[in-house]
Write a structure and sequence with these properties.
52% of the residues lie in helices and 12% in strands. By secondary structure, it is of the alpha+beta class.
Length: 343
Amino acid sequence: MKISLKPLAVLEKKLAKLNDKEKVVLVKRFLNESAETLESVGRELGVTRERVRQIEKSALKKLNKANTSSSAKINEFIIETLDSLGGIASFDKFLEKLKVELNDLGPEDLRALTVFIKAHPKLKNLRQDGNFKAGVFLDSFDLKKGEEILRKITEKVKEKTIPQKLEAFWRNADDELREISEKTLRGLIEISHDLGFNFKDEIGLNVWASIKPKRIRDKVYYTLQREGQPLHFRQIAALIEGSEFGHGRKVFERTVHNELISDDRFVLIGRGIYALKEWGYQRGTVADVIEGVLKEADRPMTTAEIAAAVLQQRDVKKSTIFVNLQNKNKFIKTDKATYALKK
């Protein structure tokens, strides 16, 4: 089901059914660019946090009753979208999905959708606590059973000790876990504080560096793996800063560079450009790389052959390679433009 309605325009008509205090609470809690806490709204209105919660609850109930054909279409679309996700999802992921389905809504309409979700009679909202992230699920979804399944999933993941593809995990799960769909399994993992996905869509524990890196060196490694190509240390710093694990904090280029220098997983292949050793790059100077190339070939090689092999390992100019070939302590010229290792 596709709809072309603008949620904010539909919501504004429904807001007219509320009293002034109810409007103020919903606007401050959900519709402003920066959502306010219950405490903050309470201070402004001169009431307690609990009273704000009561006003919010009453306002959402009124909105639900003030149904129109347009709001009914939005509500139906919300249910269909969540059902397509397996009946449960983290709040952020659900909004992302709705945004895509509704032709990339603007921020105002997306915030209005939040109110529709909160007021929906067939949805239940999961408040963030020690076990779960903020989420939403169909009222027909058995959350207690979901919690038990999530506990068993976490135990299974701990047994594996390494990340694995969700599809493979679900396919190899026992019959009890396979009672739920793969989509529902994804939704349960998304609301879990203990479990998460990496960029390969593998599941694992959030304490694992391969899922949610915390140390800067692990963030560097994760970033290079995700990008799949050598990068300058400044690019790496910028990518970490803008990533989901950057947390909006400044990432210093010098810190990233120091980690790249000191960690054996990374190889300098050009001016400030680093690659992963696991990609087949060897550590060392250009002369060391030439030495490795000639050792592997076990024969004299032309400068063209040497240059081609070295350029697979290093992002340097050919002239740099030719200069290093003049190292008489390591290499000897055996013929015209042909070199071998000095014995």
